[in-house]
Amino acid sequence: TASIGDKVTGPEVAAFLGEFQQHGHVEIDTAAAYPPGKPGVTERVLGEQSGLSNWAHISTKLMGFGEAPNSTEKVREGIEASREEAERGGLRSLLLPSAG
After folding, report:
1. I want to staple 85 with a disulfide (CB 3.0 to 4.6 A). Which of 21, 43, 73, 94 is the partner?
2. Average of pLDDT values for 70-97?
3. Which of 74, 6, 76 is closest to 40 using CA atoms?
4. How far is 79 from 67, CA to CA, in rounded Å?
5. Which of the four pLDDT bands, split at 50, 70 and 90, describes residue 7?
6. What is the pLDDT of residue 98?
7. Domain range list for the chain
8. What pTM value is reported for the model?
9. CA 89 to CA 100: how far, in whole Å?
């Protein structure tokens, strides 16, 4: 999904997701850092897809920039940003990366 909102835009996103669904897939894994250089755009574009929440389960990862968020406030901000962007599209899980 890293190219959604960057190399894959507009009608291409809907076509990609339609093909994805036709092959029986329901799990979509993404991240707040996608696409590279444009953090949050992939989550927003997925959230804008009509009907996605009717069949897809989205998992996304909080942005860690190479290291885990180190404060409760940063974690809270990351959760809120990802939730707002992706929840319309069927957000199912939110993962916290670990610097490790």
Report:
1. 43
2. 74
3. 6
4. 16
5. very high
6. 66
7. 11-95
8. 0.77
9. 30
